[in-house]
Model the fold of this input.
Amino acid sequence: MSTGNATGRVFSVGYTLLFFAFLFGPLLIMSATAFNSSSFPRITPWECFTTDWFGVLISNTRLMQGLVTSIIIGVGVVAISVPLGLAGALALAEITPSLRSALYTVLITPVLIPGVVLGISTIVFWGDLGRSLGGGFSTLFFNGIFLTVIGQVTFIAAYAMLIFSARLQRFDPTLTEAALDLGATPGQAFRKILLPFLRPAIGSAAFLTLLASFENYNTTVFTILADNTFTTALASKVRYGTDPSLSALAVIIIAVTLIGAIVHEAYTRRGEALVAGPAKSGLYANRLGRLAVHPLTVFALLVGLAGFAVYGGMHHESGACQGRIMEGKRAEQERLIEEQQRRMKENAARPQAPAAGSAPGNPSPFGGAFGNVGPAAPPAPAAPAPSGSAPGNPSPFGGAFGNVGPATPSVPAAPPASMPPAGPASSGSAPGNPSPFGGAFGNVAPGAPAPPP
Amino acid sequence: MTTRDVRLDHVTIRFGAHIAVDNALLTIEGGEFFSFLGPSGCGKTTLLRCVSGFIEPTEGRVLIGGKDMARVGPNKRPTALIFQNLALFPLMSVADNIAFPLEVRGVGRKERRRRADELLELIALPGLGDKKVYELSGGQRQRVAIARALAVEPDILLLDEPLSALDLKLRQHMRTELRAIQKQVGLTFIYITHDQGEALTMSDRVAVMNAGVIEQIDDPVTIYERPKTPFVAGFVGETNTIAGKVMSQSGLDVVLDTPLGPLSGMAGGGRHFSVGDACLLFVRPEQLSVQAAGAFSATVVKEEFEGNLRHVFLDGAGTPLRLSRVGGGAPLAPGTSIALSYDHTRSTVLPASGARA
Amino acid sequence: MNAVARIFRDFSGKHGLGVALYIGIGVLVWVIVLITLPQLAMLDYSFRNNLPPPMRGGEADVYTLVNYRYFLFGGGDGLNTLDMWVLGKTILAAVVVTFIDVLLCYPIAFILAHSATGVAARLMVLGLIVPFWVNEILRAFAFRVIFGATGLINGIGLGLGLWDAPVDFIRADVALYSSLTYSYILLMVFPIYNAVEALDRNQIEAARDMGAAWWRVHWRIVLPVAKPGIASGATIVFMLTAGALAAPQILGGPSNLWFTQLIYQWFNDAGDWARGSAYAIILLFTCLAFVLLMMKVFKVPIGAIGR
Done:
């Protein structure tokens, strides 16, 4: 890790690469699943490239309504927390050191205490206040949007404050004195000198507070009451069943984030280059270079790129491929049913044959409960999954997920009526099934090796 | 009494128990170039901030043009301050910087621009109005700061070590320029510096400060040649210090009994000493000269060559001495004993304890 | 009050009356209305019975310890080991996650501060920030995509024949811990970075020059400088992990509850705000006490947090 040391350098570079692989791996994998036509967010096996999940996402009215609510809340949070944060930063910058650390501790505490606690204290306090003022449930004191704005501001204003504090530390207080000396009133000095200096920080603070408000869950889930923000709607969707439209959402958010980050980077670099003087950087020395790295140019370029991708995506037709996959699945299913019927006849002939031996030599752990196993998949075990291939399957992970207890698995594959109940490994939710994965994987339960037929 | 007078009337400034300025009493005439000279921490900047209105005196009054400035904010005083770091507004153009005082007074945009261009003309930077501050060189920024201060149309311009950030060449050039601008606009300049060269070359009068106290106020020549306190004698310029006891005094002529023998000098600050008083004799290195028959003798320790000057370091009966001589000649070998003399009318006798006149 | 008045006068003199009023009112509203009063209201609530609104303020509305008693003893006579175990497990898991984050982030913070330069450093900072901007729900979701029964790891493991039945990473809480570790990396890197950056490179080189092994350089020279940063980052990560709700809801196994989920259940499923408040207070004070204890143990001053 020290310079001049080859092993150290190799370690540094290697570790850095691994670290960023850990940071970006999950995001890349999730993004990739947005383009797989499989109805579960996954990349193995890959079926067809599709952009349909973006359409599914947009047609999710609950999420879209939540988005509107989130935007309203976000605007409110920015409008309150940016001025509050600025007031806090200004107060911190100019009071005596002992008072400063006390005030700092008080103002930073909401960032540290669990969001759940903030949410609860907000609804409890305003509810009490509302009742003692005789307000009914239709008043502001019981309005989810209002409470969420208040609850979020409590700690998000501290984010804004930290940004302003960092900027204020670089402010030269003699500039204010110079303005006063040159005849400005204190108010004029504030407006004409300090505020313009803080302007970039105001932008950053507004952006960051909007983002923090938008993605907050812990506080919001309490304060929003019966309503829904984008994030709470998203959370309940993730908790109770997923499909790749969430991955599509991730793609959009990551794209927006990247564009924002790159434009912000261009903006700060431009600011630094301008302050340092044009001689420092060749890129900023000539007019063309300066134009090329101007934040607006960068922004336009990236948005153009994204737009192009969206246009291309909208005109991509994955129907043919998906049709082939469907066809393959159907053929596979028919073959399976035939095979099963054949075996059932054999079973009927030999009633003492072990019932569990359902999947002779089946190497696939992805139980047949999921009908959308790719065509390349080896012969699936016997359990037929008639509904599996329908998109919108409620839970790809079996019922064991989320907070849903194991007693309420959302078993995707109901045995078809034509199946005899005694069929091998037919019912996923068979009691006594040793697999923790809910019944959907009943036929791959470990400890039930499949004997040859 | 003009509107450009500044009077410090027994001004004392305390920060808690610390006394930053102790009972300053002086009057600066209108149109004067007046410097406060002293080491850092002597209270000169505090005094300047008090005149400009950022600090209220703990005791005493600041009068500008005869008016008491108590509770008059910096923005209401007829002063303009040039900060040590200049405090140019980095987000504004040069013209906007210069026109800022007009902007806050509500002067219209066109008039502001016209006035800014005039001032740029004055400081010999015409046509630079649309530049950004960071595009200027150090010396140009200096002049823009002056122009901005002049845009206030102040009666008094206060300068807080404005040249300290510049390199030596530019600093020397700016001295001449500052003095020229002052003559041209005829304002009172109050200048703060720890650099005696700046203070002595530019000023009409200099106040030497030490530890919050003004030790002496005089014109530069008097400050240099007739220091009134040991601090002034030691701080302004190089000097040789020889300790001794008073043997006799007639008029201002004082004879001291020193380890080098009886030596005479002028009583500093017109003091009258009693026989036996412990005193110090101050002789400038350039006043010492090698003579065949000198007043006393000393041994050469070493000689340093510095272009136009040679510095000879000597030991005179335990007292380290130093003389500067111009011109060539053979160097003096260490260990040589030489006889020295000096013009006693240009040497000063001051009490050894730091008592002031 | 005198001090407040004096500060107000200072502000008014420096920035004008309007700005002074804005700062004064802003800070007071924030501190009192937004921070202090709600916490007090919640504290008050936690000592009350769960009453329907019409009965509130009536005779039955008296202070009681019933909610705290419930946490200790449950409904019956024995100890409420279930809830206490959940709290203990939450704290323990948060400690583990925090510890892993320190181990992961210390090298990166050091590399960022002392090895990376120019474009590489900027890219690293950008790379650290971007994942942090992605919605926390989606971050948790990503780990479900990876660790789920049909997820990537099971897909690969089964495909290669490494194991022959899907491993339940969810039930084993692997997914949850990974996700929590992942989520707060940025909040650990930057405090350590800020602390380590202040270290003079020459000190490291001098130590290497004197023949110190790399681990000794770190132990004796870098780590003492990094300590306040580590303390700051660890506090933030610990508090956020212990207070996390989304990730445990999405990635938690069915029988593994996080303490915040208990609070959530009291509020939203049982409708018992009083008990929920009490549980929130319990969580808050346990976490704060734990952090203060740790700072005492590691001799870190409280003022170092969040800088």
